Amino acid sequence: MEGHERIRVLLADDHRILREALRMVLAAECEVVAEASDGEQAVALAAQLKPHVVVMDIGMPGIGGLSAAYRIAKEAPACKVLMLSQFDDEEYVLEALGDAGAAGYVVKTDAAAELLSAVRAVHSGRRYLSPTIAPIVLARLRNSPKNSSRAANPTRRERDVLKLIGEGATTKEVAQRLGISVKTAQAHRDNLKQKLELRSTAAMVRYAIKHKLIRLD
What we know:
By secondary structure, this protein is α/β, with parallel strands linked by helices. It is built from 10 helices and 6 strands, in the order E-H-E-H-E-H-E-H-E-H-E-H-H-H-H-H. The radius of gyration is 18 Å and the shape is globular. The termini are far apart.
């Protein structure tokens, strides 16, 4: 990119070896200004360094990638967040692009081939979806009722998480029951607190009861 400003990127992933691989993929056109290994660190570095793009793993320790993306949108709005995930479930994608405010979503299996194009796209103000998930998500959006709001509505997976929390399950037990990792279960829990403004486990239980996600008899 001779004669052009290099895209300044913050890498946020809790796996050092993957960060090194991503850095190599981006080296031709980007300057990796910092690396973060958890959500809180990613938010702090984004606010401090103001990179053009934050490449953010969806499942990280601490507040998790979705909640971190949401906070970056509030605290460093000029940064474009590109979610990087092993999950190709449409609910994750819609949640990332909707409530979390991400500009794009790349499945990790596509990263080697697609990451640089994705970073270019979100840096220029466009949205980006991995080719493996784009048709599924676009079909879902076309079939959604017009003018519907997702902002205050938990996704199907989030309702499952809330139901289990309402029944007293720990994060580890939620992960076991739903067949997901503990990190992913924690990411759902953190994002639900952010989305529904629930500040404690007790508040999440009350929400589950109020919305009849659990039976009391």
